[in-house]
């Protein structure tokens, strides 16, 4: 994102951007119904409100390692969290554990498509159908990814996308809900935030400043500036059931529409950067590279590696930060170890070995289009040096 893009989008925001963006997403995702709100977690909360019509179905089954916004939305909706372990080889549900889960009170299952790696939606849908639960295809991190020709976010009863900072395309904040169910769409359309009759034209001043700063300092060589400015909250993942519910502005619609034109180009660059890292980091001791499903087109929002030697992980992390590379440890704990979440997790005393392993060993590397060949070489050089 550049200042030129922001200026052009400001000019476009006087048109009818919501209708234009809806039309383009209808076509791109091949879905019948598209709605916009202010964030991905707002999307989830609204979807829960629509789906939760049976009081006895008050649990949402989520991965034991995922973004903290997911349990935040579950609790905000007055529901309870049921966890399922993940497979470190894929960062997706452990399908055997998903089969064994208790579904008597489960309303929906939410696969996460972490870092743009597509979740095994055919298996999730098969299990969900057997137990009569909804599937919410959480594609917050995987806009443009696909599996067997179907776009991520469109393979459940409802799908959600995030347009927040660092996503495949961004309007700084924002979220999209999609569904092919006319019944669900009708209920969604009644939500005041989606109706958005008094939509504001602009973001607030602090968000505009944040968007400008984000566009200026995203280059890897300048990333350290963002990393030390808490205002931007880069990489932050907070359990916050009291988050603010917001609508989507006309300016954000224009910005998202503008960036959607280049989504495939951006994603292909991410894939090329990820391929470069994968080829050069494979077979390094103590480093594992989670893989993607056969038949999938991952979009690598970030490139995940698992460093199973703790001292090495910390050394790699600190060295890359010193070089100005936007490395991240991502979510600091599995969901069951979030401070304050105990009252809301129905199976918090189970063992989640896969989630524990990933939380303690993961590092993610930047793949976005502003990452240069020199940056990729530097990442590989630092990791190999620390692995000796």
Explained architecture:
The radius of gyration is 20 Å and the shape is globular. Helix 1 packs across helix 11 and helix 13 runs antiparallel to helix 15. It is α/β, with parallel strands linked by helices. The protein folds into 2 domains: 258 residues, Aspartate Aminotransferase, domain 2 (3-Layer(aba) Sandwich); 125 residues, Alpha-Beta Complex (Aspartate Aminotransferase, domain 1).
Q: Which features characterize this protein?
A:
single chain; about 400 residues; alpha/beta; Aspartate Aminotransferase, domain 2; Aspartate Aminotransferase, domain 1; 2 domains; 7-stranded mixed beta sheet; 3-stranded antiparallel beta sheet; 15 helices; 15 strands; about 40% helix; about 15% strand; globular
Q: Into which percent range does the helicity of residues fall?
A: 40-55%
Structural class of the secondary elements? Answer: alpha/beta
The CATH topology of the largest domain: Aspartate Aminotransferase, domain 2
Q: Could you list the spans in which at least 5 consecutive residues all have pLDDT below 50? A: 205-209
SS summary, helix count: 15
Strand order of the largest sheet: 1-11-10-7-6-2-3
Task: Report the end-to-end length measured between terminal Cα atoms.
Answer: 37 Å
